Amino acid sequence: MLGHRYTRTFLETAVASMNAGCNLELSYGTRNNVFMQIPQALAMGNITLQTLRDRVRPLFYTRMRLGEFDPPAMNPYSTLDLSAVQSPEHRNLSLEAAIKSFVLLKNIRGTLPLRAQDLPGKRLAVVGPFADNPQVLFGDYAPVPEPRYIYTPRRGLETLPANVSFAAGCRKPQCQQYSREEVVGAVGTADVVVVCLGTGTAVETEGKDRSDLSLPGHQLELLQDAVQ
């Protein structure tokens, strides 16, 4: 109603949403609450009682599964405290999820994985605005862990038995100011080059869309300089 002008009134919006399958509203408060019009829509016959029941049922089913209607002593979530935050068990699970969600598009000549036993004496270069900037590693609505648990690509690679050089090339994902000399100097004698590029919430987030899918700023130029 407010953004797309698909509907004209809160009542019309409630009816359209309910009939489309929506059962939960992120409202602006009680005064601007679309679903407060549901009783009127029901009385006018714009929605049926069965539709209302169908929308409500999964909400209360979920709340029951979460134990919201049980005595606190019966709810396992009630026993959780701050010791569960960043616990080894949870961090190991996060690591497993990250590993299993990686998408490897190409692996020419079996470059990956980098094996520690093959790296002594080798030179690694890690470059790009995402190589050593913890602020850009988290997506929209993502919680940011304690700094000691954050491993940037540079920090992770420096745990390997290799000589690691680093150059950001540009300090921010927008990459408006780019130092080609910095990147070329870092990759010049490297046996392995890791280029870390992307967007991050500084470039795109909720309510902040991009008009094209190209790498921001000089990032493509940085990539070309690093691998030529």
What's the number of extended β-strand segments? 3
The topology string of helices and strands comes to HHHHEHEHEH
Strand residue percentage: 5-15%
What's the N-to-C terminus distance? 52 Å
CATH architecture of the largest domain: 3-Layer(aba) Sandwich
Rounded average pLDDT: 92
Structural class, from secondary structure content? mainly alpha
Biggest sheet record: 3 strands, parallel
| Strand arrangement across the biggest beta sheet | 2-1-3
> What is the percent of helical residues?
25-40%
Low-confidence stretches: none
What is the CATH superfamily classification of the largest domain? Answer: Glycoside hydrolase family 3 C-terminal domain
Counting H and I runs of at least 4 residues, what is the number of helices?
7
In CATH's first tier, which class of the largest domain applies? Alpha Beta
Overall 3D shape: elongated
Explain this structure:
It contains seven helices and three strands. It has helices at residues 10-20, 38-43, 49-65, 88-101, 153-157, 180-187, 219-227, and strands spanning 123-127, 163-167, 192-195. It is 31% helix and 6% strand. The protein has two domains: 10-74, no CATH class; 109-226, Glycoside hydrolase family 3 C-terminal domain (Rossmann fold, 3-Layer(aba) Sandwich). α6 (180-187) runs parallel beside α7. A three-stranded parallel sheet has the order 2-1-3. β1, α5 and β2 form a beta-alpha-beta unit. The radius of gyration is 26 Å and the shape is elongated. The protein is mostly helical.
